[in-house]
Amino acid sequence: MTNHFIDMVNADVVMIMGSNTAENHPIATKWITRTKERGALILNVDPRFTRTSTFADVYCKIRSGTDIAFVNGMINYALQNDFIQREYVVNYTNAPCIIREDFAYTDGLFSGYDPAKRSYDKTTWAYELDGAGLPRRDETLQHPRCVYQLMKTFFARYDPDTVCRITGSPKDDYEKICRHYTSTWAPDRVGTWLYAMGTTQHTHGTQNIRSYSVLQTLLGNVGLAGGGINALRGESNVQGSTDMGLLFHILTGYLGSPTVPDQTLADYLERLVPKTKDPKSANWWGNYPKYITSLTKAWWGQYGTPENGFGFDYLPKAAGNCSHIALFEAMYDGKIKGLMLFGQNPAVGGPNSNKERAALDKLEWMVAVDLFETDTSVFWKRPGVNPADIKTEVFLLPACSSVEKEGSISSSGRWVQWRYAASHPIGESRSDLWILDALAKSLKKAYAAGGAFPDPIVKLNWDYGSGPEVDLHTEPDAHRVAREINGYFLADKVVNEKSFKKGDQVPSFAFLQDDGSTACGCWIYCGSYAGPEKKDNKMARRDKTDAPNKIGLFPNWAWCWPVNRRIIYNRASCDPSGRPWDPKRWVVRWNAETKKWEGDVPDGPWPPEEKHPFIMRPDGYAALFAPALAEGPFPEHYEPLESPLRNFMSSQQINPAIKLWHKDKPDMNPVGDASEFPIVGTTYRVSEHWQAGAMTRNVPWLCELVPDVFVEVGPALAKIKGIKNGDRVIVKSARGRMEAYALVTNRFQRFHCGDQIVHQIGIVWHFGYAGLATGDSANLLTAHIGDANTMIPEYKAFLCDIERKEVVPA
Amino acid sequence: MKAMLIDTTRCVGCRGCQVACKQWNGLPAEETVFFGGPGYQNPRDLSGKTWTLITYNEAQVGDHYDWVYGKLQCMHCQEPACAASCPTSAMEKLPEGPVVYHPNQCLGCRYCMLACPFQVIRFDWFSANPYVSKCTMCADRVLSGQEPACVKACPTDALVFGDREVLIAEAHHRIEDNPRKYVHHVFGEHEVGGTCVLHLSTVPFELLGYRSDLPEKSLRRWTEPAMKPIPYIVVALSLALGGVAWIVNRRDKRLVEKWTKQVKEMQ
Prior knowledge:
The complex is a heterodimer of chains A (810) and B (267). With 810 residues, chain A is an alpha/beta fold. Helices cover 22% and strands 15% of the residues of chain A. A six-stranded mixed β-barrel of chain A has the order 22-28-23-25-24-29. In chain A, strands 3-2-1-8-9 form a five-stranded parallel sheet. Chain A has a three-stranded parallel sheet with strand order 10-11-12, with no helix packed on it. In chain A, a hairpin with a 4-residue loop joins strand 6 (113-114) and strand 7 (119-120). The radius of gyration of chain A is 27 Å and the shape is globular. The relative contact order of chain A is 0.14. Chain B has a three-stranded mixed sheet. A two-stranded antiparallel ribbon of chain B has the order 2-3. In chain B, strands 4-5 form a two-stranded antiparallel sheet. At the A-B interface, helix 2 and helix 20 of A face helix 1 and strand 3 of B.
């Protein structure tokens, strides 16, 4: 989130698209209902009328997988009617920047496409530079090749008729959404945009979010109170897990994972450190060398020397893509011997479950760390297999739950809150920290005897207060971990005219060094634990006093990364002279007398005109035109991998930059077509169950509420298929079949896409064969196909068919 | 007197209240299949194990489709008919608001079930030693200054707890502030003499499963005259039936003696 949960109360319009906030983030809903009572409008776009739709002022249905068409249409509406915050756009975005002459777009493809590699050479997706190496700009926005004019032409193709033909949305509802949302272009009106996995889990998931960001930026809604791009993360601490580098492509603090070409620290920095010649660009990522050096120093301490890149040489260098689908494909091919799972249940949660379960059969060993026996940990006795045929050795380690251990949790709003253990762990269950600590100590002991490359393990800096031996009754100290994450000085040092002693905690990331004199486990958390005592733990703060601007920042409640800044890009909430666009809910403002910013922690201390506000961008401008993503600088609509319709926008049916697993690895990766599977399927969660179900399908009270897997079917389709509410039905895709109860409901309506009618059904995906409440997994139907940038699987749109299961009377 | 205000326009149907109720009161889960009612409703109805239940109701509101939630539970009447109908005072209205149940005083006559105008009291049919049961407004919590468990769990403040007068004023404020949103009626303000559970809704209350034909006056005026003579009737009936039993038993005893004698004679 650029903003945070409480900030939703500041919005005039709340757009909820690709998120079922009420069901999956019920607590967040509190702030939305509050802002609604203040008079704000709530808009909701979803294939199905959900518990979120019930409190929306306008609900508009949309066929799964067509967000880009919908939002590009909204962008077109804003551009054609000039509903844009022009001063913001001219000063803070790259709309005036002129793009190279050889950049082109034709029939669904941008310039530089290589069909054999299914990827782009992005050379032409760049600014035209002036003599000083700065982007050429036309602040009148008239130049035919400025980003603004390119956008006007590009997005004009998304007229309301075309959009509604693609999305199947009723034109009335669609136009209402366009009108209400773009009303927030006015400087004193703000709209917030909430999304979740309904947006991301597509082959064009990242571009879905791009389209939201482009619109939010045009309307001048980023950086303001009640605005921003706000991802409601799928789990309570998933923000923390990505901050801490749990994804394959990043280390902690969003530093890139080294790859094979990064043989030295210099190679790595050359690839990743952005450069700018604009003195007004803060180019914050220019500090990359300080952050990566401090990270490797935290991990290897004295063994990180200038000769080995301060420990960089010890980091593994990834060869190729190591995302979930790629790992399970490799496992299926027998290339992976062992698997460790911490609170993960891929037999239910992974796409194409039949293939992923078959992949597990090929493992030599598996360790599952969980609260309950999960479907994955008992994959060897799943229905339809003979346990004697499976040779995998499986270990189930009992983990304790979140309330049984101390530590921090990071919310979607980047607030890091310290929690104390509320009770003792049950039985011999242990915290993840204890298990990891024991594992590390055992590995260090094993490698001390020698190995292929023992140094990174043997020399690993590992001391969390539990002694050198594995002891069941000694819990490692979470505070030590937190202090390392914050960072400390490794030598006496004077930085920014302040002197520090060896061992002092680093007060903020502005003090981190690239000469090996500081260690920091995660640079964005620097400042969260800025002293040696427990009282210095800012994550544990519980002060309910609001800041003077009274917009719900609560700056002394917990701690927020970066540097306790509650709304990021907040310099953009002011005009170029530092006056808030909306003085009624100002975030920061420049005090000309004290020569200081007041309010939230500003995005840098410089006076207003001195630096551009989007400090994380190399050029300092919000990117309406962005060459970073794999499939193009503007979001373009493509159909999902499996779709009942051809792409009405171009002859490129699907995202041209996605990896086609069914072509590379055809075994167990079939793709269906609409002649056999004419119905669009999607998957989702309900409030009553959690993810793959291990934590809820073992709780009788929750099983009582939703005891069985069910499929929601609209009345029109139910009539065609002869399905009544409560019937047992079979749902089939090219990859698998499942059985479920049919819930026939008006909340699912068919889509009129031009002259074609498209039916869609929805299936809850929480179920599996382990636990108290069991049922078939919806992911038996989904495919091994991922987004071109992130490889997140396309869970939200696939083709299937449904039929009533004939019950033979006994 | 304390009360609870349920604003269905704030409810998002998450059912945190339903689970919190079972957790606090130690009520077991029911075994369910699919869904027991419209939408995601489960179980089918209130029971000895389920004291509060969220209902999912599909409705046409003006020109658009809507899905509205109701919350069924004991309404904690100001002058509860159940208490008035109870021959042994097993149901008791506390001055703080809750209507509580004392199982050790219960005869098992189930008059309270018949008397309840909201049909929220349930009998444990499957128990060998059955009791009636219903929501207690978490009287144990309320008496120690806390709000009921369901209110505590509600993430959107659809449930709020406080002084009844204050909540009634709050409910009227909400209607005045949003006259187009709400039905202009605070359900429970006057029904059957007033209740300590108050409802606000966007749709007619019948749609949420509440009766619109309830009188404003307390039902005690019906139950009390009927119930007042009951102790006397019970005593008189016991004596009379005891007498009948004595006579019948004596006759039976004599007959048995006579038949035994005859059988012996035949042998």
